[in-house]
Amino acid sequence: MTDLFSKxxxxxxxxxxxxxxxxxxxxxxxxxxxxSPTVAICNGKRTILLGTYxxxxxxxxxxxxxxxxxxxxxxGSGTTGSRVLNGTYVGHKAVEQALKDFYAMDHAMVFSTGYxxxxxxxxxxxGKDDYIVLDIDSHASIYDGCAMGNAQIVPFRHNDxxxxxxxxxRIPEGAGKLVVLEGVYSMLGDVAPLQEMVAxxxxxxxxxxxxxxxxxxxxxxxxxxxxxxxGVMDDVDFIIGTFxxxxxxxxxxxxxxxxxxEILRLVCRPYVFTASLPPSVVATAATSIRKLxxxxxxxxxxxxxSKRLHAGLRQLGFTLGTEEPQSAIIAVIMPDLERGAxxxxxxxxxxxxxxxxxxxxxxxxxxxxxxxxxALHTEEQVGEILTMFAAAGRASxxxx
Amino acid sequence: xxxxxxxxxKTIELIEPFNKKGVAVSEATRFAQDLEWDxxxxxxxxxxxxxxxxxxxxMNMQAEIENVGQxxxxxVKLTA
Lengths: 400, 80
What we know:
The complex is a heterodimer.
Chain A: H1 9-20, E1 31-36, E2 39-42, E3 45-49, H2 62-75, H3 90-103, E4 107-111, H4 114-125, E5 131-135, H5 140-148, E6 152-156, H6 161-170, E7 177-182, E8 184-185, E9 190-191, H7 194-203, E10 207-211, H8 226-229, E11 238-242, E12 252-256, H9 264-267, H10 269-272, H11 279-292, H12 296-316, E13 329-334, H13 337-350, E14 352-353, E15 355-357, E16 367-372, H14 379-395
Parallel strand pairs in A: 3-14, 5-6, 5-7, 7-10, 10-11
Antiparallel strand pairs in A: 1-2, 2-3, 4-12, 8-9, 11-12, 13-16, 15-16
Helix pairs in contact in A: 2-11, 3-11, 4-5, 6-7, 12-14, 13-14
Chain B: H1 3-15, H2 39-53, H3 59-62, H4 68-79
């Protein structure tokens, strides 16, 4: 018998080698208690959270939590059914209405996760003989959506406007075209030049889908994302987003002004063939989305945090993913996985949690310590974070 | 040189910057096994080939291409 698991042997070996050095397993952390959006107890130690996607700190918002309690009491723990059968409750319609209001768009469709939103929309709207042109650094859910459909898939160099344009021009006359972009790329925290890219896409007859998972609630005047900040909302055909970041729960969605959008509810398999979100989840999401509309002060504070952390880390001598802070993600580039894991552990011992990211999730084989800030991190916490980075960086030899 | 030979010569030239192992490249050289390219290297290389020949090599087509000769065959067709 061939062991189907032998294909994983190189990865098993790499993990064993890493852990043999005595380092704590960076992919097995357990949070014993969560005190707030910015503090948890890990290994019995009070730990500042700097690696969550809780950008707007909504997870413990009293109104959000109360809405969840009420829905749990009134509608029970789950729907046990598909959105197109018995799984649509008033709460599902209410959260879709909240999204339409938030984005000022005609249609909203809610999926059980953000991953499924990309999987479903991309695989359904681009069919055989259509072309999907996507940024090389796109999220796994975008690539998986491409793989699940049967369109022709054409990647282009990250954030390269000319590379996008050249490829669009090479597509055969008459073929359907979908350009897939992200507002914020989550590994380095850099923003796409959407203004130029959307214009180039439209000039070449393509529809445009933008994944705004890491910008919702934070970037743009109303928190609608990078497309809003760069003034191209009206030319974007589909926006994909998630409830598992700024919204603070779980779920995914697509909003659009396309007049035929509603038909997707019948033809999109990752929407049809799965259970809908529990009533408590859609209730927390709807409440959170409505509060995010009116969060200009929190957005301003989050920018302050991002700028301060970026400047502070640079001053300490770390190499960062972007020259200037462009989002709530600050990526610290590590020389290799071993030193990255050592630095990650040193930070955890100091009482700071960040994300350790490594290939294949990262571009160009990089090992990153990804810091994602929260609007509820206080000025004092950002100061503490910088002190911990200085100590851990020196202990692990990453800075002098 | 025939068109095919020219395309082969140009393709080998484009492989060189990514040929970290210093493999002697022929038509039989396989991208994954012999050159040991990972998916990111493939994407970078394909972008260069596309721009050099002004063609599109979709990921669907890439899945069918294992070695240098097959890539050259595909380019002969695409540039015909």
